[in-house]
Amino acid sequence: MKVLFYSSKKWVSDLFTELKKELMQFTFLEHRLSIETASLSKGYDAICIFVNDHVTKDVIEILKENGVKLIALRCAGFNNVDIKAAEELGIGVVRVPAYSPYAVAEFAVGMILTLNRKYHRAFNRVRENNFSIDGLMGFDIKNKVVGVIGTGKIGKIFINIMRGFDTHILAYDKHPDRSIESPTVEYVDLDVLYSKSDIISLHCPLNYETYHLINKYSIEQMKKGVMIINTSRGALIDTNAVIDGLKSEKIGFLGLDVYEEEEDIFFEDLSMKIIQDDVFARLLTFPNVLITSHQAFFTKEAIENIVITTIKNIEDYLLKGDSPNLVTSEKYFK
Length: 334
Ligand code: NAD
Hints:
This protein is of the alpha/beta class.
């Protein structure tokens, strides 16, 4: 079982090498998967990719020609893979549906606390012997209304944590799970969620229905000073619309662990480079915006689960032609 890893980093090669099965041979490339780098897959049974590898139909055709049988995602989201094209060409796609929903949910809560109480600013001030607390005032989270879009694995854990702060939760999901409803957790329509929430956190997948879910029109419906948190996928948010919302002060706080054009920026050390993305550069100028580099998943427990599940997915598919974690259009695009 020869597997070629794209977008590999040290933690990827270290852990996958440590945990690989006897019959497996791994090659690690730092390059992202693209039309140009797809040709390197010749002679491999599977490729293993991450969130910012774009697997278009053209790429899948090259993989097919090269004899690749499986695309193994070492992440949960699969919006970056043309699933229908893979099916048409008979290439399997597997993913890691849940590795640690806690990691992402806890990170989203951390973003709320950081934006609200400004830990990052306080840390820098104190290190420069500036002990003034001017400008660091936050608000009590207790009794605030928290809107949660997407109540799957991560959304549910996020709701549980936020309930501990004595908040009222307004949830929205295309497929509501009524078992989570309680006097403090209610499903509502999106317009109600937008107009009543003090904090809105996104936990739904990116697809054609959710692309730019947060846009000029949804922002117009929100409360002045709303906090928006996105740890899901960048393109759930229309970045230019949130920049306008920040400038008009309609949006009071923005926490982003994902960004719609993140693939040219995130996961790389660009500290000696000039950022070419002017929209991203503008976002960085706001004092009430917190951006992290797609790290919500990055805990010890989550990484171990990613590696173990990915290896099992590859083994299952290459040896038995199936996997419980196969992504099919029948399962996801009904
Ligand atoms: P999940 O599949 O368990 O839950 C997603 C929920 O979204 C489901 O309940 C589904 O019904 C709902 N949904 C689907 N379409 C919707 C729509 N149009 N409107 C509203 N809700 C809709 O997924 P999860 O494990 O909770 O993960 C959620 C998302 O988090 C993933 O899609 C992924 O993009 C993101 N994620 C980010 C990181 C990170 O490191 N930042 C890590 C893992 C996952």
